[in-house]
């Protein structure tokens, strides 16, 4: 039996994923969460084989959560599920330790098959064109991309620090590093560059 944990912030979507996967032969949903802090609290006890993570979670995004899980729960493989079809996100997901990247447009059977493949040690990227396009890796670290993504959403330095449980100085340093690595003149320019390449 493949044990799956679902992390999705939209309640109706999460309920649908749980019902869909629980109805599949050989798959059991052992837990679910609406955000990363809740997931981190519950995942270890649930002991899943596969964590199905939405990329666009509030606070810590799914990519940062995948990275965190890679060392907190090393026996759990992660599968990203998203509406974002940007090649840069595929590379970031793989860099964060994910074993798969799926668009939410896939069929229920394709999702179940991807869970089975990832559980068996495989890697799944759908649609396949995304795997081919995922060439240019981001120059940003996972943490730099995380603070830049929150800044892009309108959060100021203090709000980002509170969201990620970091010091304000640490957030400023990461934002400054991101601006420098992207050869941007301002934070706004850095956000535009990162969004255009699918790095945040």
UniProtKB/TrEMBL annotation:
The modification 4-aspartylphosphate is found at residue 54. This is Response regulator transcription factor. The lineage of its organism: Bacteria, Bacillati, Actinomycetota, Actinomycetes, Kitasatosporales. CDD domains: LuxR_C_like, REC_NarL-like. Residues 133-198 form the HTH luxR-type domain. It comes from the Bacteria. SMART domains: HTH_LUXR, REC. Residues 3-119 form the Response regulatory domain. SUPFAM superfamilies: C-terminal effector domain of the bipartite response regulators, CheY-like. Keywords: DNA-binding, Phosphoprotein.
